Each structure stands twice: as C-alpha cells, then as structure tokens.
C-alpha cells in the first residue's frame, strides 16, 4: 500500500513532521511518500497545495494524509476542503489542554522552536561548539569541563550521540575512541578513570559494526568481522574494569541512547546507584 503524507504548517512544520512521523511508525505495512510543506501561510499557497493533494490522490488511488499545525482558520478550511484526510494536531491537543488549565492559548505559530529562552539557546550553541571541538579525543584535557564523556570502539556512534546531547539537551559532550595503543595495552588512559563519574561506554554488535566500517573502508582489515569481534571483546573487558554503564547502539537510535544517558546523569545527581550492566542488548558477548 502506498500513501502520500503531507506535513503542513504556516511556520517551520517541525512539530507536524515530528509528531506525524511518530504516528506513522506504527504502520509498518504501509509505504509512506512523505512531503514536507512549511510556510503555507497564504490562501494562494494553500490552494496550490490542494492541487498537489489531488495529484497524489490520483497517483496513489487513495486520498493523501495531512498532518498540520495550522492556526489560521481560513487557510485551514481551504486545506480541509481538499481531497485529503486532514489531521489538525493543535486542534486535537490544544483545546482540551486549554480547558483543563482554564487559560486561553496564545495561538501564535512557531513558538515551539522560537528562541523563547535565550539563555538556554546560548547554552545549546556553546554545547554544540564544545562537542565539535572535543570530538575523537582531540582534547582529553577538556574532559573535566564536559558534562558527559563517551567512549567506545571506532564507529560505535560516539560523535552523533555527542552532537545530539548538545543540540537537544545543551550538554557539553566529549568522546574518546579506543585506539590501537589502548588495544595493545589492554586498557584505556588514566584520564577516563578520572572522569568515570560522567563516563558512558557505547558498544555495538560486531556484525553491525562490520557493515558500518565496510562502508568507510571497504575490504580493509579494519572492517573485517574478526577485527570487529576482537575490538568489541577487548573493549568490553575495558568497560568492566572501568565499571561504567554500557549502552548498546546496535538497535537503539541516537535519541534512545541520549535519553538513557540524560536519565542516568539525573540519577547520579540525585545520588541514586547506577545499573552497570549493558543497556539495550548483549552485543559482543
């Protein structure tokens, strides 16, 4: 089954896309052609979009699905009149919430991604710069300034996780890749032991790691399955010696890994003991 989905907004459309995409993931048997349509903020643009909806309906043999965050009632009515299944996300949630709170909503578009709290926005920018400047163990002397430090074998997901933690949580994140020298020595540098209170290890299934490394260096020893098995096995021994939480990136997304890290950091701040067993799988065992 093929269905076209439009994410529509009079502003950026990020909210419509994020929530709409989350709902679509529950329907694995359907192939969705996703169309991103921000800034539909005039009646002319809305009418042009209804023509695209009709074209999609003719092509798919079924009306398109529209996830919208449209506060302008006139534009909303134009879209609703088109040949589509229209879901107004603000209409679904804002009305009941306003009734519960007893407060009328502002009904201003773009507020969810506007710079409403400049201090936190500045913190996020600084965190992103920190993550980029402290990638791949470039500045281990900066680890003491980091909010969180990640370690793991090459291509286990350290860099994208650090950037996500910076962008979405404003956390200064650094990472240290386990090097050839570390494998030969059988241990990580003392600097990681010194910051173990904010250290998390990432692991990954050797087969998955082999596929990732093969894309980077096809046919190399670095990408061989044996090398991947050996790297993960030795790294697991190091993690056990470090006694830090281990998160498995094989099937977990960056978002899931990051949320677990943030949760663990909060538990540390509250003085609650952390679970040191591997979280999210049993890769490398």
From TrEMBL:
Kinase keyword on record: yes
Organism: Thiorhodococcus minor
Record key words, sorted: Kinase, Nucleotide-binding, Serine/threonine-protein kinase, Transferase
EC number: 2.7.11.33, 2.7.4.28
Function: Bifunctional serine/threonine kinase and phosphorylase involved in the regulation of the phosphoenolpyruvate synthase (PEPS) by catalyzing its phosphorylation/dephosphorylation.
Keyword Transferase tagged: yes
Stated name of the protein: Putative phosphoenolpyruvate synthase regulatory protein
InterPro entries: Kinase-pyrophosphorylase, PSRP
Signal peptide: none
NCBIfam families given in the database record: PRK05339.1
Superkingdom of origin organism: Bacteria
Residues that, per the record, bind ADP: 152-159
């Amino acid at each position: 089954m093929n269905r076209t989905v439009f994410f529509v907004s009079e502003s950026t459309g990020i909210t419509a896309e994020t929530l709409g995409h989350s709902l679509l993931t529950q329907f694995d048997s359907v192939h969705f052609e996703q169309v991103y349509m921000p800034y539909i903020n005039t009646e002319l643009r809305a009418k042009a979009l209804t023509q695209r909806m009709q074209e999609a309906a003719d092509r798919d043999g079924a009306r398109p699905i529209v996830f919208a965050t449209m506060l302008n009632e006139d534009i909303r009515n134009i879209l609703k009149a088109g040949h589509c299944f229209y879901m107004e996300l603000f209409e679904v949630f804002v009305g009941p919430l306003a009734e519960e709170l007893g407060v009328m909503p502002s009904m201003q578009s773009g507020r969810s991604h506007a710079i409403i709290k400049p201090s936190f926005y500045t913190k996020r920018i600084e965190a992103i710069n920190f993550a980029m400047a402290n990638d791949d163990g470039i500045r281990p002397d900066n680890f003491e300034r980091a909010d969180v430090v990640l370690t793991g074998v090459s291509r286990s997901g350290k860099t994208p996780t650090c950037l996500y933690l910076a962008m979405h949580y404003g956390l200064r994140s650094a990472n240290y890749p386990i090097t050839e020298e570390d494998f030969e020595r059988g241990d990580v540098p003392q600097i990681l032991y010194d910051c173990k209170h904010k250290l998390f290890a990432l692991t990954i299934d050797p087969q998955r790691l082999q596929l990732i490394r093969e894309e980077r260096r096809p046919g190399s020893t670095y990408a061989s399955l044996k090398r991947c098995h050996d790297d993960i096995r030795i790294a697991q021994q190091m993690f056990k010696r470090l006694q830090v939480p281990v998160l498995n990136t094989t099937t977990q997304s960056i978002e899931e890994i990051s949320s677990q890290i943030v949760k663990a950091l909060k538990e540390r701040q509250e003085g609650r003991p952390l679970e040191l067993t591997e979280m999210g799988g049993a890769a490398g065992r």
